[in-house]
């Protein structure tokens, strides 16, 4: 076993391994992971406590097997990657502000790019040639202006955005780009972007949330999109059909309180319908990279775009988990409800409600939603 130790001296290799194992254990998500670390101090102690916590939910619980995690660590090492933990000094600062920030990422490349002002450029996979050129031009000019260009390494708009940013860097000015993939750090998708992904990983930054060896699946792309939006001050959609996944990224950016921008297109072109709809619903219309630079250079946390009402501001759970859970089972249904509403209606302490939710989550009965909302698993 050889976990590359994070730069925080307090995190030993043994604790790093325990954190990976904790996050890979059944029904552990970003919120429950942080709650357990806060309650028990270390991942090793949290792992020891899991069977008892889950046992209150009448289910036998087994944490992720150590040998499975050892194989994962070896896979990261073989890929030439390293782990990045949520409380590490160089964890991306904008991403850390989001509700469901991944507690652990794997990365290759230059992590300092994530600390620079970032802008997401996304759009259709089956984009028109004109739109791909536009994405390439925007990517290049934004990189030259000092922004890190973030995208998902998909065909079409994503590829053009990365290529433009990388080309700008060859002249010695800017050129920063981050590729966020919906697979393991060792998987290339689509296959025709093998060279591009490798160039992003060596000259820019490549990030993955999934375990090495994980092939991309449909449900992993929205997870990937939340990271793209979370890294960035704003998201620019270049071209998108009404059902484009890039609209998910735009919606997530809006919920995070980030800027949402779109380039308008002809009403006769179906691939422009998504962008035109975004603008109609409150996204900022932009014509040039200078528009994006002007908008994001002045971004103070209050977006000019009104696309989607921002979800309630997320705050880390400061309350310690109580010793006994609150009785909230009768208040929950499959309809999402804010956690603070459960606290209000139950009359119980916040820590007792959080413990009850954690036990339900470990038992596989709870689903956490954006904006600090929860529901029973349907």
UniProtKB/TrEMBL annotation:
Domain of life of the source: Bacteria
InterPro entries listed in its UniProt record: DprA, DprA_WH, DrpA_SLOG, WH-like_DNA-bd_sf
Name assigned to this protein: DNA-processing protein DprA
DprA winged helix domain segment(s): 318-372
Signal peptide limits: none
Coiled-coil segments: none
Domain Smf/DprA SLOG per the UniProt entry, residue ranges: 83-296
Family of this protein: Belongs to the DprA/Smf family.
UniProt xrefs under SUPFAM superfamilies: MCP/YpsA-like (SSF102405)
Pfam entry (one): DNA_processg_A
């Amino acid at each position: 076993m050889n976990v590359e130790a994070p730069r925080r001296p307090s995190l030993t290799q043994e604790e790093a391994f325990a954190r990976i194992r904790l996050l890979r254990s059944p029904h552990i998500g970003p919120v429950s992971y942080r709650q357990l670390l806060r309650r028990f101090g270390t991942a090793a102690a949290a792992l020891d406590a899991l069977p008892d916590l889950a046992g209150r939910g009448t289910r036998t619980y087994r944490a992720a097997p150590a040998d499975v995690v050892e194989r994962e660590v070896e896979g990261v090492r073989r890929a030439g990657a390293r782990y990045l933990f949520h409380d590490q000094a160089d964890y991306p600062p904008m991403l850390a502000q989001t509700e469901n920030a991944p507690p652990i990422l794997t990365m290759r490349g230059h992590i300092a790019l994530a600390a620079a002002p970032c802008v997401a450029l996304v759009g259709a996979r089956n984009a028109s040639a004109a739109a791909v050129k536009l994405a390439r031009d925007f990517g290049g000019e934004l990189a030259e202006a000092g922004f890190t260009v973030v995208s998902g390494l998909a065909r079409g708009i994503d590829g053009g955005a990365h290529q433009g940013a990388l080309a700008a860097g060859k002249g010695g000015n800017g050129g920063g780009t981050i590729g966020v993939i919906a697979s393991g750090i060792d998987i290339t998708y689509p296959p025709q972007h093998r060279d591009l992904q490798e160039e992003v990983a060596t000259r820019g930054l490549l990030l993955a949330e999934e375990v090495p060896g994980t092939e991309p699946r449909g449900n992993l792309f929205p997870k990937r999109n939340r990271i793209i939006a979370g890294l960035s001050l704003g998201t620019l959609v270049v071209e998108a059909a009404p059902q484009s996944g890039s609209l998910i990224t735009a919606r997530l950016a809006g919920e995070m309180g980030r800027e949402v921008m779109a380039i308008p297109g002809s009403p006769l072109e179906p691939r422009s319908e998504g962008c035109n709809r975004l603008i109609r619903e409150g996204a900022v219309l932009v014509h040039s990279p200078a528009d994006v630079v002007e908008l994001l250079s002045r971004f103070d946390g209050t977006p000019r775009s009104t696309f989607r009402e921002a979800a309630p501001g997320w705050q880390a759970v400061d309350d310690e988990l109580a010793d006994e859970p609150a009785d909230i089972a009768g208040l929950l249904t499959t309809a999402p409800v804010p956690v603070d509403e459960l606290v209000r209606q139950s009359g119980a302490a916040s820590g007792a409600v959080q413990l009850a939710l954690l036990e339900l989550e470990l038992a596989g009965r709870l689903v956490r939603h954006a904006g600090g909302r929860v529901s029973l698993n349907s």
